[in-house]
Specification:
five-stranded mixed β-barrel; alpha+beta; eight-stranded mixed sheet
């Protein structure tokens, strides 16, 4: 007896079933009328099968009535397609099914968005009718990918000796760097639970309980402002913790898991095997961010010394102020005024006054210039610099640049290495194959310009862009400009996944307005140097904290935990939390640490963000089944919603209207 709805899925049938009677069920994906013969692409989760009906079919009249996205069941006979009608793009492309019976399982009203095709719809429409949006091929593929990634992570963690444990969803509020979602208690009026921002305290308590390795596919809840790569309410992470480990042990454990997932689901992209460890300070200097995209080879550099006391007054005066720097973004291949002006305009759009620039272009050279270069080369190769200087003076009688040549000769004649190097810079700047252009080059002069070119390793057809001030004021814009330059000049390699561990995070940061010191990262991290490190300047204390960046996104964050109460109390004291407050807010952990807490550490990998990278989308809502919109609203379920009067009375709450 045949199943009530289907004998096969819409991806099953091949030439081996030709002549068989089959039953299929699914949605009407597309309808085509070819001269009285109706062709329907019938779709289910697994694939598409072409079914057809002509006036000879006993249900032709009923089939004529069906419309897109009706859910139907058909009975029919499998037939082989003509050779010239085979569709090699789908597994069922060699066959079709002639309809002999049909049942409408679910009619569809006029559709607010089409499932067939690649039409773009406003995000509001897509989220309001998410169940229709999820029927689309790309969304089915993304959600299947997400499920497969989670299954792969689980298997890999079990294979490494980890066990999965679930931690509470209703708990106490904890400072994790974002706002809590609070839940009022009916049984304890005036008191509130919190949804966990992460299973942080619980996973540490699991280690204190003697379980050596823990992991969980954990839901986390944070009341955050939305971004394209962040959900404003909840997200999932691969959470893990280990006892008796150091920082490198955590790296060695999680790297094969993440690497394996990217190799399994990354398609044709290669996965970098070498994951460099970059200090937070260097990441900020080189890339302008603590989540650098290493597919882009551009490394920013500090070039302050070349502008100190220079003819470019803006930078020279800026450098007289404490804590200021000038940084350069080298741009190989960016040496045109048009590109430089475009990047300057980009900086202005980002809220900065602009970006200074220098670019290097080809310059014709005469015989005198070539002789000067040969003289310099001979000096470098070991001949007496004074001999080269004498030759230069002879030639300078016939050259209008006599003063410049005299300066070069004097430097060579002095014979010391620094003077010879300086002479080389002037010669390259004045007589080389290329010349520096742009307002900055004119203001600071050829020698400083050449020193910048040599430091950055640039040449003809290249450019450099400059930003100055206190790093915090321009670092983020510089980082974004680096990304734009890498993209526009074709320097960023889109064929790979590039990873980097960011380490040595500062434990504390100071509020520029209030001067108050607070934790800059995870407050439960172990400071490098232990309790002694907390006796000095808090802003100099580094933590055993680390992030993993991939292609410009943070995908893992973790730390070696602070398992000693004396260090914990001192660490929180520096952030303004007294011992009594720590005991009150983290009483469970404080009490547990009194009874033999082991050294432990771990990390959490953001599942949503990892799947986003694997799906090659920049919007995290494309890989979450039922996401909130940018205003943290669920348009489909109408959340958040107003509570009823009875609910408020039961909880002892009253809503006070906000004054705008």
């Amino acid at each position: 007896m045949m199943h009530a709805y289907r004998s096969h899925t819409c991806a099953d049938l091949t030439l081996s079933e030709v002549g068989e009677s089959v039953r299929l069920a699914g949605w009407v994906h597309r309808i085509r009328d070819h001269g009285g013969v109706l062709f329907i692409d019938l779709r289910d989760h697994y694939g598409v099968t072409q079914v057809l009906c002509d006036p000879d079919s006993p249900v032709f009249a009923e089939v004529e009535k069906v419309r897109a996205e009706w859910c139907i069941r058909i009975d029919g006979t499998v037939k082989a397609r003509d050779a010239d009608l085979i569709n090699a793009k789908i597994p069922t492309g060699e066959i079709e099914v002639f309809i002999r019976d049909m049942e409408v399982l679910g009619r569809a009203d006029e559709l607010p968005l089409m499932v067939f095709g690649d039409q773009e719809y406003p995000e509001e429409t897509r989220l309001r009718y998410r169940y229709l949006d999820l029927r689309r091929e790309a969304m089915q593929r993304n959600m299947t990918l997400r499920s497969d990634v989670v299954a792969s992570m689980r298997k890999r963690m079990w294979d490494k000796g980890f066990r999965e444990f679930q931690t509470p969803i209703i708990t106490a509020s904890s400072p994790e760097g974002a706002r809590d979602f609070l839940v009022p208690s009916r049984l304890h009026p005036g008191k509130f639970y919190a949804l966990p921002q992460a299973p942080q305290q619980f996973k540490q308590l699991i280690m204190v309980s003697g379980f050596d390795k823990y992991f969980q596919i954990a839901p986390c809840f944070r009341d955050e402002d939305p971004r394209a790569d962040r959900s404003p309410t909840d997200f999932y992470q691969l959470d893990m913790e280990m006892s008796f480990v150091e920082q490198q042990d955590v790296f060695d454990t999680i790297q094969p898991v993440i690497e394996g997932v990217f190799e399994e689901f990354g398609g044709a992209k290669t996965v970098d095997k070498h994951w460099p460890q970059i200090s937070y300070r260097d990441a900020a200097l080189w890339y302008g961010t603590d989540k650098p995209d290493l597919r882009n080879p551009i490394k920013m550099q500090d070039v302050s010394e070349h502008f100190r006391g220079s003819g470019f007054a803006i930078f020279a005066k800026l450098l007289e102020q404490e804590g200021t720097e000038i940084r350069a973004i080298p741009a190989k291949g960016g040496g045109s005024r048009k590109f430089c002006d475009r990047m300057n305009a980009y900086a202005q759009k980002e809220g900065l006054p602009g970006m200074g620039y220098i670019f290097w272009r080809e310059r014709g050279t005469g015989e005198a210039d070539r002789k000067i270069r040969r003289a310099l080369r001979s000096a470098y190769l070991g001949e007496k610099p004074s001999a080269a200087a004498e030759l230069l003076r002879d030639w300078s009688k016939e050259d209008e640049r006599k003063k410049t040549i005299e300066t070069i000769a004097s430097l060579l004649e002095s014979g010391d290495a620094e003077s010879v190097l300086r002479a080389g810079r002037i010669i390259d700047a004045e007589f080389g194959d290329y010349e520096a252009a742009g307002p900055l080059a004119k203001n600071i002069g050829p020698e400083r310009t050449e020193a910048i070119r040599q430091q950055l390793g640039l040449g003809k057809g290249d450019a450099a862009f400059f930003l100055g001030g206190k790093p915090k004021s321009f670092e983020a814009v510089a980082g974004r400009a680096r990304n734009v330059i890498g993209e526009e000049l074709g320097l960023t390699d889109h064929t790979r996944f590039a990873f980097a561990w960011i380490v040595d995070f500062p434990m504390y940061e100071k509020d520029d307005e209030t001067g108050a010191v607070d934790f800059s990262h995870n407050p439960f991290s172990m400071p490098q140097g232990g309790v002694e490190a907390l006796d000095g300047d808090p802003l100099e204390v580094l933590g055993y904290q680390y992030d993993l960046a991939c292609n410009g996104y943070e995908i893992v964050s973790g730390a070696i935990r602070n398992h000693r109460l004396d260090i914990m109390f001192k660490a929180f004291e520096l952030a303004g939390y007294g011992e009594d407050e720590v005991k009150k807010r983290f009483g469970g952990m404080v009490n547990a640490f009194r009874y033999g807490a082991p050294p432990h550490g771990g990390c959490a990998a953001g599942i949503d963000r990892i799947v986003m990278l694997l799906a090659e989308t920049a919007n995290i809502r494309e890989v979450i089944m039922f996401p909130m919109n940018q205003r943290a609203e669920d348009l489909m379920m109408n959340a958040p919603s107003e509570p009823t009067s009875d609910q408020l009375m039961e909880l002892g709450l009253r809503v006070i209207p906000r004054e705008d």
